[in-house]
């Protein structure tokens, strides 16, 4: 572990802390309809959760102009708020989240989030689940380039007074794993999210968690490693 550095656990949000896939798929379907475009396959949308909105839309519409991508992205943001306001779909926490966050905080592990969500969207999610007080650092799509660029993770590490070797990034997609590896941090995949464990391993995950309760002992193991 980094000499004298604060231990830092950085979490992705959607697909790692919160199961938001149905809200995201519904919002993207609305955004496409509003712009006169056939709705995308929800399975394709699910695989892009975690990317910056513009990057996700670009992958769904590879031949679209910049203007169309911007319009769909804007509609997606507005639709997401409307879907959440209607409470048409639940966004439950994954099992064990609160208990494990409390365990880590009691061990003086600093907790942060690095997400492709907007700050407004993230703060709304944290407030909904009463998680706002658990995290000392929030890095969002408003703070820098989207995943897998390591910028927001490196910023979180610096802000925490940590180091890459004292930092673990916990996420459910290959974008999280690539970001962590690029930053020189430990990359921990989760088996309950939106990309398959085999994909996370192939992307370079140091370990795959099968349940949230696996996180504290996994952190103990990696941080004991010279």
Strand content: 5-15%
Average pLDDT confidence is: 93
Helix fraction bin: 40-55%
Distance between the termini: 6 Å
Q: Can you tell me the CATH topology of the largest domain? A: Rossmann fold
Instruction: Tell me the total number of β-strands.
Output: 6
- The fourth-level CATH homologous superfamily of the largest domain is HAD superfamily/HAD-like
**Whole-number tally of structural domains:** 2
The number of helical segments is: 10
Name the quaternary structure.
single chain
Structure class? alpha/beta
Gross morphology is globular
Keyphrases for this structure?
226 residues; alpha/beta; Rossmann fold; DNA polymerase, domain 1; 2 domains; six-stranded parallel β-sheet; 6 strands
Describe the structure.
The protein is an alpha/beta fold and 226 residues long. The chain has two domains: 8-19 and 91-224, HAD superfamily/HAD-like (Rossmann fold), CATH 3.40.50.1000; 21-86, DNA polymerase, domain 1. The chain is built from ten helices and six strands; from the N terminus they run βαααααβαβαβαβαβα. The chain has helices spanning 21-34, 42-47, 53-60, 66-86, 97-106, 119-129, 151-160, 174-183, 197-203, 215-224, and strands at residues 8-11, 110-114, 137-139, 167-171, 186-190, 207-209. α9 links the parallel β5 (186-190) and β6. α3 (53-60) crosses α4. The protein is globular and about 55 Å long. The mean pLDDT is 93.
């Amino acid at each position: 572990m980094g000499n004298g550095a604060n231990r830092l656990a950085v979490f992705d949000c959607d697909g790692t802390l919160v199961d938001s896939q149905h809200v995201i798929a519904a919002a993207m379907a609305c955004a496409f309809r509003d712009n006169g475009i056939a709705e995308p396959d929800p399975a394709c949308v699910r695989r892009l959760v975690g990317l910056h909105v513009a990057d996700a839309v670009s992958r769904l519409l590879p031949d679209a102009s910049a203007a169309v991508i911007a319009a769909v992205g804007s509609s997606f943001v507005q639709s997401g708020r409307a879907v959440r306001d209607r409470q048409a779909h639940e966004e439950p926490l994954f099992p064990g989240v609160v208990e494990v966050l409390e365990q880590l905080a009691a061990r003086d592990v600093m907790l942060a989030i690095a997400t492709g969500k907007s700050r407004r969207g993230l703060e709304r999610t944290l407030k909904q689940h009463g998680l706002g007080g658990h995290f000392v650092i929030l890095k969002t799509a408003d703070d820098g380039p989207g995943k897998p660029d390591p910028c927001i993770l490196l910023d979180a590490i610096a802000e925490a007074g940590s180091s890459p070797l004292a930092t673990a990034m916990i996420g459910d997609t290959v974008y999280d794993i690539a970001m962590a590896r690029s930053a020189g941090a430990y990359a921990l995949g989760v088996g309950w999210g939106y990309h398959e464990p085999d994909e996370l391993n192939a992307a370079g995950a140091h370990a795959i968690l099968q349940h949230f309760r696996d996180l504290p002992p996994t952190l103990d193991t990696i941080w004991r490693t010279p």
